[in-house]
Amino acid sequence: MVSLAGLGGPSLVAAVVFAIAALALATTGALRDRPAIAAGARRALISSFGFVALATLSLLTALGSHDFSLDYVARYSSRSLEGAYTFAALWGGMEGSLLFWTLLLTGFGSLAITRARSRDPRFGGWATAVLAGIATFFLVLLVGPATPFAELSPVPADGSGLNPLLQSPGMLIHPPLLYSGFVGFSIPFAFAMAGLLSGRLDDTWFTSTRRWTLFSWSALSIGIVLGGAWAYTELGWGGYWAWDPVENASFMPWLTATAFLHSVVIQEKRRMLKVWNVTLILLTYVLAVFGTFLTRSGILSSIHTFTEGPIGKWFLPFLALMLIGGLATIVARLDRLRSENRFDALVSRESAFLANNVLFVAAAFAVLWGTIYPIVAEVTSGVRLSVGPPFFNSVFVPIALAILLLTGIGPLISWRRMSRGAFTRVVRAPIGAGIVTVAGLAVFGVDSVGTLTAFGLCAFTAVAVIGEFVRGGRVYRMRGENWFDALVSTVSRNRRRYGGYVVHLGIVLIVIGLAGAAFKSERHALLERGGSMRIGDYTLTYEDRIQRETSEKQINVVDIGVSRGGEELTTLSPQRNFHFAQGQPQSEVAIRTTPAEDLYVVVTSIDPDGAAAIRAFVNPLTWWIWVGAGVMLGGIAILLSSPVPVAVTGRVRREVREPAVAVR
Amino acid sequence: MPRSSPKRRAKFAVGGAIIFVTLVGLVAWATLRPGSTVFYMTASEVLAAGSFERDHRLNGTVIPGSIERDGLLTTFMVTDGEADVPVTTEAPLPDAFRDRSEVVALGTFDGDAFSAHQVLAKCPSKFKARA
Description:
Chain A is an alpha+beta fold. In chain A, 61% of the residues lie in helices and 12% in strands.
């Protein structure tokens, strides 16, 4: 493969020039209301995308042809690296990730702007200006302090290789998904800002970017779950979520975006909460960029921190500008963002949505607080401290359980108001299911209040959501369809609503899996060959060790026989390998997974005499997390397949109310 | 724009205030709970403290050649360049742990040795093989 490394730097310079031109033209076009200038801005943004794509291509060919004259290639790849990972090194380091970010940003931006070109030129102009402004920031970083095209001399014979932990299939898609999610939010953000700046304050900004919002949220959701799955199968500490600052960085925008997805429904149906919605999308985007900043600045030490990058000081002013500029724009238009309706009653669908929003935003702020508290403490009092999982669990679990409760209750309550009798009728079955679950678990000796609450609420919410499908399907059943056809008809007629409920069911399953962690157990033991250890009901026996070598690493496969009650179940083969390029060992986990529990085995070290230190975990119900994620994915597919909403105009929709399914 | 009745608005205000105070209280309580925040110390600071039974994080560099293993028990010396503290642990050691790695050990100090129940070593992706 030919290396096009030489094209990279100049392409980026061209890209930044076009981005600045797009910014200037778009602003002028919008201010003077001149469609021709706005069209020029659009073309400039597309050209900028073209040059970023060329720069990306040039870095990819440099990686593919092992052109170690580029510092980036030498640092994040090596000759022995397997095919796909060579290209995954594009997001293996800071500079490459920023390039990838910018590629997505200019690409998504060009696409969204092109599709919106028939709109009011002032609106399109401002949207282009916001996107080009963000692109300019990232491109300035890429041509300056964070260029991926820095040259290296003398040229080394081989590169350092990609961190072995990152050489896993999950890593091929986890970073691109998270970045797509982060970057995708630039579109609704830019359109919201464009709506404010151009004074076009109807609801078109979010209806026309609804797909982008859903897509970004979905990408972020899947990305986060994959990150957890990666941590679980690669890192070997038996868990999937450590409240690491960078995990939090992806989680915070997810929380506010989830709030946004819900509250936007109120704006659509009831034309309320307009200020709140633009604020939420602003917060989501600022948190997404903040996430990139946290990951890339090295301000917090974390397993994800690639380098103590020189770019941290660039991000803070940019974030401040977006936040202050965004809020100022919202404040300037406050008078035109008035609600056209009001809250009628405390017990109403609107209130449930509002409470959901308050809780999601509170959760995001709690996570933010815990994430930046170490910095606050160090800056204000010079104390160096860390905030650990105990903080996050004790603040997040109660909020999450309250959200779970609302997930169950919300759909049962009708819009505007609801009679007590009607409410009682619909909550009877879910409450019954909750009580039976709690009582059943208590009989089996579960005595933790938190765990009982979690499982009780899971049962409550699951039954409540399933009840929605049953009630929805009843109409079709009465028309003589069988139950399956009725279900399909129900879901396909209102994909947004029922797709959402499927996502809720997935969340319930995930919570079941998370709650199972309360019963987790762990053992660490040193075994001679033939020796055994017990964990839970299992007996683990160190049967054999097989050693072999590849060009990259020395592999030690340790065979562990697993038996329960004298019955041989399986043989697990965790590995303890030594990577030559990095000069460090790495463990490969082995997991026996069942719906009831995972048996998770890691070799933490092998003595010269052959004795192996084995760390074993029994993780109950973890399987449900991945199943729940699968169900969520199904729900997401239904949501994304729903027809593109027609922009709500005027007051037509104002009096349209969803029939209160519950009160029939 | 239609206005809510004063009574209804009051209900929402009270509800909102209760939720807000509860949430702020929750975050404050969680922050101040023992175990939520753990202080970082250098080797010198650990020695100066004499001993402690609450978990702290000892941050420093592993002195080359100081790592000794005996079954699951590992002992090593951590230095900040001025003072050295012996660390003992039975916890699994991270893959990046070796001579000269920068480590963070979580545990207690009895005046002689730092007894760690968790050891983290500097992120492997930070590691540069060229060095």
